[in-house]
């Protein structure tokens, strides 16, 4: 046998030099390939194939089976020996046609007909024998491959097995009549994708799936990866060979008679119910006189619904027309789809009346696209949308397509469970994405595989139907998704978990609400619920105005979700040491969703901008459209999950925090009913948390980082509203006084400051979670942020204003220098409105509003009682505090005596030299400015020492300044006597003030001599009043120096 097999190898191998070769100087062949074909025919005539098949069948799965290279040559020989296409059937049809051409009447040619029939029968028997031999040969080789053990498979060359599989595929294509060996690539719906006998091709796909299962269940990782690559190829081919839709429902077209059901051209369907090979897909619809059509017509001009149009008295528009949905190859070789009234004699030419067209891309040429149609000259806007109806297969075969068989194979063999089993590997997870997506797409595949009329009749559950929701068990199940999440939370390998996140996120858009919502709910349930008590626990049961999360779970009960979620929770608790909190895993999943959605939104925005720049369509039309109910429920569940992470107590420890927040920000600003209900639910959650923290006085009861975070999230949500709605929410309502947002934020700040006074240092940092190091608590930032939020909330007109009592309370709590300076900056900012023209001031730039009003009204009183008080503490304040003093909108109080007193105190007591210098300049400017004389001043003439006289004001600025300097010197003396070292600084600044004043003496009495005379007079008055005691050394030195 070995010698015989070797000889067969030489006979069948067409690459041998004596069969085919090329000259060095030419591409023409010099061998004799016809000799090989003759020798194959002789081998068959000698019944060699029958003997070979018996030999192969007995040795399948053993080491004595011929080598794979020989098997490849044998398959090629069998493929070449089969008549291509349907030559056998064509000759048979021709003979049959000749015999029946004359209506079956015999005109004396019985003998000739008999000989013809005998020849035809002999030829058919020969073809049948060739087919059987080729098929049996393929079965023997496939049997052998499937019986090989794992060790043998590992030793074999994967590329050789792949080439054998490709040649087997070519052979079965020719056996089935499709002959797809020469055209293995192409889009769905191509002309050579539907075999005459699909059961033969199904036989090959059965082998292909069995091979894949053998590989993925092996213990070798390379074999497993090979198997998963094989599954991807099976999915691709199964989808490519999918039968075309049996009809298309056109709806929404501006030309009303275009709307309706277009059925596949029956002339292009074989007797077995499949599409003929090598034909272009076409769909037709004829509008009848009674207003109906040859196919069911969509009701109304908008194409809504699928029921027939009721007959009307007036003749319908377009009556008698035959409309065609077809594909045409353009001069550029692009294939475009048209909705046209085709010309009878020359269809597909310029004589057609085109209503709508779709300029299909390469990947859209196979079947008509659902959207993206353009209006032609004969049509009217808007262009239609298309919906595929059913599959063009024989009745009863709707669930026997290659796609359905693949889905059934995957479910029955628990292939998804193999992906997520104990031997899970990130490369396997990565390769399984296509299968998971495929199974997800099969969930709703059978909803439109029923006849249109049957759908209409059985869609009412009251009539015994299932409402169009007949469950397909051979598709992705919720238990598969929950298993994926369970594996993700239990797996210590971060790379594997990350791959599962990507897997779940990638398939999420293709999941139906019945699958997506249970997955999201299970993920959310794995978070620690104590953090979100009162808000998230009832999220899936409560209905909102925009639809509820629970609305998408109507079918969950039949999927066994409760048990799966229960198992998931128990397993998760054990794997995390009883913690029951998978915050890190959930956050990574949410981050993957956020980044994918943000990327898609950016791409969509760029596409919309480009489209809007190329046409004049109304860009706002899309924003008013409503989401389908199922999509709305999924979006609601996703946002609720994202919010659960965003509001978690450890959210700020996440590296992905900003990505999640950015995604929620883009979603929460949408003005639709679903978003509005979610935004309000999230806001109520924040309100509850802030109120709880505001009522707490115990330092150990409050996580200060999380408390501040919830305040920030409250503001974040408020800014998601339109201005009018935002002001309505912050408006005082007596019925909800305890939850008035402005008051709540103020109470939170007061409570925080009271807790702050109980500790002289920052609260200890929490133990970091497994995500990253927790941010160190920053009191200064916390106070500043809360005050900025007060500026925002009280800057809204409807929220009211801060009262004097509230400001006094704040002032009394902010006694530390840093706190006092931060409060003064807030008061200076809040004392003035911010019109926002052209934009908000830098200190208000964090607020997402157009303008802000002043936060309080009694500016003069606030300025004089707080900023000008004696207990400001300028000894420890720096230039920021004095900047706030200057920027405060004092409304005319700048010229008051209390302001002047405050300037003197700042000059003398400020611990910062820069502050004292700026205050000194402002103080001298007050005395130097005209028109600031006291109303009670009595003007007089004072004589100088040289006998001259000058006009002065006894109670004016000169006397006031001199008196103030003298009083300061007296205070310095007393301070020095007490040993107060700050008095030395005050004395030095008095001299500096006096020196600066003398330089500007024109406004202080006319000359330096006048100042000296006043100081001397004041000194004498003090001595006489004190019984002749010694004067202050400082005052004496100043008088002598002047």
Structure report:
By secondary structure, the protein is mostly helical. Helices cover 51% and strands 5% of the residues. The chain has 37 helices and 10 strands. The strands form 2 sheets. It has an 8-stranded antiparallel beta sheet with strand order 7-6-5-4-3-2-1-8, with no helix packed on it. A hairpin with a 5-residue loop joins strand 4 (322-329) and strand 5 (335-341). It starts with a helix and ends with a helix. The C terminus is likely disordered.
Q: SSE layout and pairings?
A:
Elements: H1 2-12, H2 33-45, H3 48-58, H4 68-81, H5 87-99, H6 110-147, H7 150-155, H8 158-176, H9 198-216, H10 221-240, E1 247-251, E2 260-264, E3 282-286, E4 322-329, E5 335-341, E6 353-358, E7 374-375, E8 385-389, H11 402-412, H12 415-419, H13 426-431, H14 433-441, H15 452-458, H16 478-490, H17 494-507, H18 513-525, H19 561-575, H20 583-614, H21 629-646, H22 657-668, H23 673-694, H24 704-718, H25 723-730, H26 741-757, H27 779-793, H28 804-813, H29 817-830, H30 859-867, H31 879-887, H32 897-909, H33 913-928, E9 939-943, E10 949-953, H34 957-978, H35 982-999, H36 1008-1025, H37 1033-1041
Antiparallel strand pairs: 1-2, 1-8, 2-3, 3-4, 4-5, 5-6, 6-7, 9-10
Helix pairs in contact: 1-4, 3-6, 4-6, 4-8, 5-6, 6-8, 6-9, 8-9, 9-10, 16-17, 16-18, 16-19, 17-20, 18-21, 20-21, 20-22, 21-22, 21-23, 23-24, 23-26, 24-27, 26-27, 26-28, 27-29, 29-31, 32-33, 34-35, 34-36, 36-37
């Amino acid at each position: 046998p070995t010698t015989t097999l070797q000889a067969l190898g030489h006979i069948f191998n067409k690459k041998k030099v004596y069969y085919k070769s090329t000259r060095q100087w030419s591409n023409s062949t010099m061998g004799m390939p016809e000799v090989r074909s003759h020798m194959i025919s002789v081998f068959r005539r000698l019944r060699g194939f029958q003997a070979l098949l018996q030999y192969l069948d007995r040795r399948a799965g053993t080491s004595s089976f011929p080598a794979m290279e020989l098997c490849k040559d044998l398959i090629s020989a069998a493929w070449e020996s089969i008549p291509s296409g349907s030559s056998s059937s064509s000759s048979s049809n021709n003979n049959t046609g000749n015999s029946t051409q004359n209506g079956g009447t015999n005109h004396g040619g019985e003998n000739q007909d008999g000989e013809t029939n005998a020849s035809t029968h002999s030829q058919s028997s020969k073809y049948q024998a060739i087919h059987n031999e080729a098929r049996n040969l393929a079965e023997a080789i496939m049997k052998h491959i499937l019986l090989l053990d794992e060790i043998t498979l590992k030793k074999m060359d994967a590329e050789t097995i792949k080439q054998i599989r490709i040649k087997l595929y070519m052979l079965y294509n020719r056996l089935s009549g499709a002959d797809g060996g020469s055209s293995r690539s192409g889009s769905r719906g191509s002309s050579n994708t539907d075999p005459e006998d699909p059961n033969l091709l199904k036989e090959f796909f059965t082998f292909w799936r069995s091979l894949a299962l053998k590989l993925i269940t092996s213990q070798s990782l390379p074999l497993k990866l090979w198997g998963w690559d094989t599954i991807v190829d099976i999915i691709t081919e199964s989808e490519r060979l999918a039968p075309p839709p049996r009809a298309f429902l056109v709806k929404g077209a501006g030309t009303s008679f275009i709307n309706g059901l277009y059925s596949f051209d029956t002339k292009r369907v074989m007797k077995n119910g499949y599409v003929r090979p090598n034909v272009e897909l076409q769909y037709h619809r004829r509008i009848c006189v009674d207003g109906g059509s040859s196919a069911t017509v969509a009701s109304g001009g908008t194409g809504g619904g699928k029921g027939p149009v009721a007959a009307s008295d007036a003749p319908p528009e377009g009556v008698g027309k035959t409309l065609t949905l077809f594909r045409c190859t353009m001069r550029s070789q692009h294939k475009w789809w048209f909705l046209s009234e085709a010309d009878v004699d020359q269809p597909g030419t310029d004589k057609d009346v085109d209503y709508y067209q779709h300029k299909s891309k390469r990947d859209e040429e196979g079947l008509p696209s659902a959207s993206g149609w353009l209006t032609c000259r004969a049509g009217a806007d808007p262009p239609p949308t298309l919906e595929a109806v059913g599959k063009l297969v024989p009745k009863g075969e709707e669930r026997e397509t290659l796609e359905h068989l693949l889905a059934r194979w995957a479910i029955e063999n628990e292939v998804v469970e193999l992906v997520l089993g104990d031997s899970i590997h990130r490369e396997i997870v990565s390769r399984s994405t296509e299968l998971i997506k495929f199974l997800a797409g099969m969930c709703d595949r059978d909803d439109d595989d029923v006849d249109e009329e049957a759908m209409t009749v059985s869609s009412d559950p009251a009539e015994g139907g299932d409402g169009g929701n007949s469950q397909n068990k051979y598709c992705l199940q919720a238990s598969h998704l929950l298993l994926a999440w369970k594996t993700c939370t239990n797996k210590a390998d971060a790379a594997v978990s990350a791959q599962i996140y990507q897997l779940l996120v990638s398939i999420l858009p293709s999941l139906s609400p019945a699958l997506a919502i249970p997955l999201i709910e299970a993920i959310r349930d794995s978070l620690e619920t104590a953090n979100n008590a009162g808000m998230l626990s009832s999220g899936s049961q409560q209905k909102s105005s925009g639809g509820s999360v629970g609305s998408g779970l109507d079918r969950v009960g039949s999927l066994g979700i409760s048990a799966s979620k229960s198992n998931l929770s128990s397993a998760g608790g054990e794997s995390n040491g009883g913690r029951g909190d998978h915050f890190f895993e959930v956050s990574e999943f949410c981050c993957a969703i956020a980044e994918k959605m943000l990327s898609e939104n950016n791409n969509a925005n760029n596409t919309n901008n480009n489209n809007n720049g190329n046409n004049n369509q109304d860009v706002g039309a899309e924003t008013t459209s409503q989401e389908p109910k199922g999509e709305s429920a999924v979006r609601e569940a996703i946002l609720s999950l994202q919010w659960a992470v965003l509001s978690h107590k450890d959210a700020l420890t996440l590296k992905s925090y900003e990505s999640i927040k950015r995604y929620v920000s883009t979603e929460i600003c949408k003005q639709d009913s679903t978003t509005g209900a979610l935004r309000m639910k999230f806001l109520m959650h924040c309100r509850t948390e802030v109120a709880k923290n505001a009522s707490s006085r115990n330092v150990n009861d409050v996580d200060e980082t999380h408390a501040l975070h919830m305040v920030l999230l409250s503001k974040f949500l408020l800014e998601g509203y339109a201005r009018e709605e935002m002001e309505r929410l912050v408006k005082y309502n007596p019925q909800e006084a305890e939850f008035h947002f402005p008051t709540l934020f103020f109470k939170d700040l007061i409570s925080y400051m009271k807790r702050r006074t109980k500790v002289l240092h920052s609260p200890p940092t929490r133990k970091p979670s497994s995500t990253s190091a927790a941010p160190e608590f920053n009191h200064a930032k916390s106070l500043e942020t809360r005050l900025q939020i007060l500026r925002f909330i009280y800057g809204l007109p409807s929220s009211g204003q801060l009262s004097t009592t509230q400001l006094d309370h704040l002032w009394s709590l902010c006694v530390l220098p840093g706190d006092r300076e931060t409060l003064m900056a807030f008061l200076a900012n809040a004392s003035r409105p911010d019109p926002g023209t052209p934009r908000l001031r830098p200190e208000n730039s964090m607020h997402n509003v157009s303008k802000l009003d002043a936060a309080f009204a009694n500016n003069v009183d606030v300025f004089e009682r707080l900023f000008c008080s004696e207990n400001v503490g300028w000894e420890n304040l720096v230039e920021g505090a004095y900047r706030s003093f200057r920027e405060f909108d004092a409304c005319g109080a700048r010229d008051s005596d209390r302001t002047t007193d405050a300037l003197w105190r700042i000059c003398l007591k400020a611990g910062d030299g820069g502050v004292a210098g700026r205050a000194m300049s402002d103080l001298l400017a007050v005395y130097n400015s005209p028109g600031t004389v006291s109303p009670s001043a009595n003007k007089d003439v004072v004589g100088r020492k040289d006998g001259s006289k000058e006009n002065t004001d006894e109670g004016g600025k000169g006397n006031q300044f001199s008196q103030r300097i003298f009083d300061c010197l007296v205070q310095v003396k007393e301070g020095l006597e007490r040993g107060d070292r700050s008095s030395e600084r005050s004395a030095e600044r008095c001299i500096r003030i006096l020196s600066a004043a003398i330089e500007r003496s024109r406004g202080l009495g006319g000359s330096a001599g006048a100042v000296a005379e006043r100081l001397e007079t004041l000194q004498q008055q003090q001595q006489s009043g004190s019984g002749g005691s010694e004067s202050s050394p400082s005052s004496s030195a100043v008088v002598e120096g002047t």
